[in-house]
Amino acid sequence: MAEERYKMVWDNCLKVISQIVEPQHFNTWFKPIRPVAMQDSTLEIEVPSEFFREYLEEWYLDVLKKTLKREVGADAKLVYRVRPVAVEAPLRYPVAQGNTPVNKTISIPVYQHGNPGPFVYPGLKPVEVNPQLNPVYCFGNLVEGECNKMGITAGESISNAPGKTAFNPLFLFGGPGLGKTHIAQAIGIAIKEKYPELVVLYVPANRFKTQYMNAVNVNNKLTDFLAFYMKMDVLIIDDIQELSSPGAQNAFFHIFNHLHQHGKQLIFTSDRPPVELEKFEERLLSRLKWGLSVELQKPDFATRLAMLKARSFREGVELDDDVLIFLATRITSNFRELEGALISLIANATLAHKPVTVSLAEKITDKIIGEQKNDLSIDKVQKAVCEYFNITRDALLSKSRKRQIVQARQIAMYMSRNLISNCSLATIGAEIGGKDHATVLHACTTVADLMTFDKTFKQYVSDIEKMLVPVRR
User: Largest alpha-carbon pair distance within the chain?
Assistant: First the structure.
C-alpha cells in the first residue's frame, strides 16, 4: 500500500493542478511527469530533462508547492529526478507533400489596336492562369492557437462557400511572421480542392502594381489588365498596404467592385488594420472594411511548441522535447523566426555532424535574436512604461496599491519577461522594488489574462511594445 501512496498523492495533485493551469500548458508541463517514490512527506517525481525541471521551477514552483502541501501537509517536500535519455538514432518521417493547384484556362477579350472605340469588337484570347499557390501553405500544415483561431475558422468557412459568406472581403492583418500569407493561401488551396472549376489567383500587391504600370506605360493594354482580373473567382492580394499608387488603386477599385458585385471571393492581408492604411482613397478603405477584419496575434508558448513539433515532423526529423521547449521559450515574436531557428539548428547539426542539443540551440538563437533583444534592458522597459502612463520611476518601484500604479508595474514585469532574453523572474523582481519570484509570476499571468478580454488593457501593452520594439516596415 505504501508503494502506491506516491501515485495516489500525485494523481490527486494533478486533479487540482488541471483546474488551475490551462489545458495546453497542463498537457505540456504536467502530463509528462511521473511519480517514482515517496518517503514520509517527500514526493519524488521524474521529469524528461534538466531544462524541463528548470522551467517548472521558474514558472510553476508556486503551484506545485501549494498543491503538494494541500495534499500531504505543511511539511511536504518535492524532489526531482531527471529521466535518463536512451541513446537512439532519431526517427525519420516523410516530408509532407501536396498537389500544386492548377486553374482551368480562361478566355479574356482583347483589342487589336489599343483602347476600343464604339465600333471595335474584341476577340477572345485563351489565358493560362497560374494560381501562384504553394501547396505547403495548406490548412493541414497550420498550427491553430488562440493567436490565429479566428482567422483559421473564418478561412475554413470561406473555403466551404467562397463568395457566399459574410466574410467577403476577408482582411487579415498583423505583424510580420504571424501566418497571414499561410492562412490566405490555405483558403485558396482548400477552395481549389473543393471547387476545382473556380479560378483562384494569389498575387502580392507589389506585383499587382507592377503589372498595372506595365499595362499602362509599356504595353498600352489597361483594358486587357482589367479584363484579366475581372475573370477571377477568388482573388487573394498579399500585403495590400503596398498598393499606394493612385493609378493602381483606381484600377483595383473597379476590379473590387466587379468581383464583389458578382459574388466572387476577395481576401487581403496587411501588416496593419484598414484604419491605419496610409495614402489610400476613402472609397477604397470603406470597401476593405465591408467584410471581416481579423487580427493575428503573437503565438503563445503552447502554440509555438506545437508549431515546432509540426515543422520538425515535416522536415523528417525528431528532436528532443527539451530542445523544442528551449526554442519555444527563447523565441516569442513570430512563427517565421521560430521556423528559421529550427531550420538553422537542423542544418548546423547536419553539416557539423553534431547532435542537436540545447547548447547548440542556444548558440543558434543568439545569432538570430541576439542583436534584436540585446539592446533592451529592464531599465529601458521601466522608462517606457513610466513615460506611457505618465508616472515617476519612484512610483513604479514603490509599494503603492493604486490601480494605475499596480497595472503599470505588472506590465513592466510582463514586458521584461517577454522582450528580454535570459531574464529570469528573480532578476525582474529584484529590479522592480525587490519583488519575489511568485509576485512576478502572478503579474505575468495577470497581464496575459487581462489581454484576452480587456481591449483597452491590451492596447496599453501593444502601444508600449511598439515603443520598445518598433515594427520594421
Answer: 100
- Torsion angle of C-alpha atoms 399, 404, 407, 409, degrees rounded to 10: -40
- Residue 71: CB atoms within 10 A of its CB come to 17
Do the Cβ atoms of 194 and 101 come closer than 8 Å? no
Show the cell assigned to 129.
Answer: 492562369
Backbone angles phi, psi at 61, to 5 degrees: -60, -45
Omega before 131 cis (within 30°)? Answer: no
Task: Check: CB of residue 49 under 8 Å from CB of residue 322.
Answer: yes
Please report the pLDDT score of residue 88 as a whole number: 37
Residue 144 has pLDDT above 80, yes or no: yes
170-221 confidence digits (pLDDT tens): 999 988 889 999 999 999 999 999 999 999 999 999 999 999 998 888 666 8
User: Distance (Å, rounded) from C-alpha 277 to C-alpha 283?
Assistant: 13
> What CA–CA distance (Å, rounded) separates 80 from 33?
10
Half-sphere exposure of 248 (CA within 13 A, CB side): 20
SS (H, E, C) the chain: CHHHHHHHHHHHHHHHHHHHCCHHHHHHHCCCCEEEEEECCEEEEEECCHHHHHHHHHHCHHHHHHHHHHHHCCCCEEEEEECCCCCCCCCCCCCCCCCCCCCCCEEEEECCCCCCCCCCCCEEEEECCCCCCCCCCCHHHCCCCCCCHHHHHHHHHHHHCCCCCCCCCEEEECCCCCCHHHHHHHHHHHHHHHCCCCCEEEEEHHHHHHHHHHHHHHCCCHHHHHHHHCCCCEEEEECHHHCCCHHHHHHHHHHHHHHHHCCCEEEEEECCCHHHCCCCCHHHHHHHCCCEEEECCCCCHHHHHHHHHHHHHHCCCCCCHHHHHHHHHHCCCCHHHHHHHHHHHHHHHHHHCCCCCHHHHHHHHHHHHHHHHHCCCHHHHHHHHHHHHCCCHHHHHCCCCCHHHHHHHHHHHHHHHHHCCCCCHHHHHHHCCCCCHHHHHHHHHHHHHHHHHCHHHHHHHHHHHHHHCCCCC
Q: Is 155 left (phi over 0), alpha (psi -120 to 50) or beta?
A: alpha
What pLDDT score was predicted for residue 384?
92
Cβ proximity of 195 and 264 under 8 Å: no
Q: Residue 316 burial by CB count (10 A; 0-12/13-18/19+): exposed, middle or buried?
A: middle
317 vs 222, residue with greater confidence: 222
pLDDT in tens, 305-340: 888 988 888 777 778 888 888 888 888 778 888 888
